[in-house]
Amino acid sequence: MPSGIDYGNLMHRAMRGLIHDVLLGVQDSGLPGEHHFFITFDTQHPDVELADWLSDRYPGEMTVVMQHWYDDLEVTEDGFTVTLNFGDAPERLYIPYDAIKTFVDPSVEFGLRFETHEEDEDDDEPTPPDGDDPEGSGDAPKQDAEVVRLDSFRK
Questions:
Q1: What is residue 150's DSSP assignment?
Q2: Is the dihedral of CA 120, 14, 129, 107 positive or negative?
Q3: pLDDT at position 86
Q4: Contact present, 104 and 37 (Cβ < 8 Å)
Q5: Under a CB-based contact definition with an 8 Å cutoff, are residues 134 and 63 in contact?
Q6: Residues 6 or more apart whose Cβ sits within 8 Å of residue 54
Q7: Which of 60, 44, 25 is nearest to 128 (CA)?
Q8: pTM for this structure?
Q9: 5 phi and psi, to 5 degrees?
Q10: Listed residue (31, 60, 74) closest to 135, CA to CA
């Protein structure tokens, strides 16, 4: 019997579900108005699929932009596949929701950040247009969601 309600894990799944629903709408109808996404993800997550040259260039994390040019968006229950353009080199990526570190739509000042924290021993759940130039980081243990201020993404 559980010792309490695991709000962190429940929030984690709810926020990943929100991203799934948003991307499903984009898959069906395209990006409405000025909406666009900055998606930062862990390139070392075991289920991420990307070209070797991209994983070599971004050995920890990578931020991609879905705005003017993206193609073949396919959304599943566990992640999404999309073709993005990296300096006139189209590349197909698969990004599981559990690998996402931040999801930001600056057009409406909306953002999510998935913070890492120590895993509980009782946890059964695994961790979770063009490319930007993000810095690399570490591995991806289980993460909780929190709202992120967009000031950190402004230039």
A1: G
A2: negative
A3: 86
A4: yes
A5: yes
A6: 43, 62, 86, 91, 93, 131
A7: 44
A8: 0.71
A9: -85, 125
A10: 60
Ranges of H-type helices in 30-139: 52-57
Instruction: Count Cβ atoms below 10 Å from residue 117 Cβ, excluding itself.
Output: 10
Helix (H) or strand (E) holding 105: strand 100-105
Is the CB of residue 2 less than 8 Å from the CB of residue 124?
no
Do residues 99 and 79 touch, judged by C-beta distance below 8 A?
Answer: yes
Tokens representing residue 69 in the block: 């040019």
Per-residue confidence in pLDDT tens, the chain, 155 aa: 568 898 888 888 899 999 999 999 999 998 899 999 999 999 999 999 999 999 999 999 999 999 988 999 999 999 999 999 888 889 999 999 999 999 999 989 999 998 765 444 344 443 333 444 333 333 334 444 445 555 555 55
> Within the chain, where are the H helices?
7-29, 52-57
Give one word for 88, left, alpha or beta, with left for phi > 0 and alpha for psi -120 to 50: left
* Rounded Cα distance, 90 and 112, in Å: 27
